[in-house]
Amino acid sequence: MKRREFITLLGSATAAWPLVARAQQSDRIKRVGVLIGFAENDPAVQSWLAAFRGALAKLGWTEGNNLRIELRWASYDSDKMKTFAKELVDLRPDAILSVTTPVTGALVRETQTIPIVIATVADPISSGFVTNLGRPGGNVTGFALYEPSMGGKWLELLKRIAPGVTRVALLFNPTTSVPIKFYMSSIEAAASSFAIQASTAPVHAKDEIEGVIAALAGNPGAGLIVMPDLFNTINRDLIIAAAARYRAPAIYFFRSFADSGGLASYGPDFAEQYPQAAEYIDRILKGEKPGNLPIQMPIKVPLIINLKTTKALGLDVPVHLLQLADEMIE
Fold this sequence. Notes:
This protein is of the alpha/beta class and about 325 residues long. It is built from 13 helices and 12 strands. The strands form 2 sheets. It has a 7-stranded mixed β-sheet with strand order 7-6-8-9-10-11-12, sandwiched between helices. A 5-stranded parallel β-sheet has the order 2-1-3-4-5, with helices on both faces. α2 runs parallel beside α11, α5 crosses α6 and α7 packs parallel to α9. The N and C termini lie far apart (about 85 Å).
């Protein structure tokens, strides 16, 4: 080979190297962390995760091909949340799906740079994750569940389902719940409108649940609003059983309570957030910044009424309310 031909060939090959390197970099397997606050044996959460994976596959992300998912289950344990949050951040994933408010708090404490897409998070503003839903601006975006006005709607629904209610207690755990003040303005306004006395009922351990509900039901006219809270979700069977035992009408924030025997639920469908979260992950993996993706609120909030429980409590639900219900459990 002549010297000139060799130099030309060498120059062409050298010029191609950056293109090859860039292609290899863009084609590398993307790593997505997933940290879930719920237990692995929860069938509902497993279905949400399957919907998330399925949506990613439809968007062209195949595990073992161009995607690797690092999955961790915190199982309601705050220590595990902290441990797994640090573990996932140390892996330097391209994005993280964060499920529940406490899990997001643990992740945000570990990183302000890795993109975090939230799901099943009550309110990211009052929790301090973002300051603006429309333009989050930092490394957190995703899908929130509740607006402050929901508090007043829960109280109004409880009064319409159980007209005899004159006192309402808000059941929550201060360490795992969104700050209760987030809902208080709308609750107090509705309480004033319906001449109801509203008070908080904080619980810190599951052993306290029965005592709090028993004390509430010790006087006539008592009702219960079970607030959005991972603690309440974990202990839903205990709460529902105590409410039934002491004949305390209660309204819940999530349909699984109504499915399990709770009087009624009014809250968003958690499942719909997971295909949406996959779309946000897809956009981030393709180069969009999380701070430019707005945090979205639910479009539909279904009302579920358990007719078996209304009968057990001797309640006659107004016809117009039954007509408004998205589903009635018999």
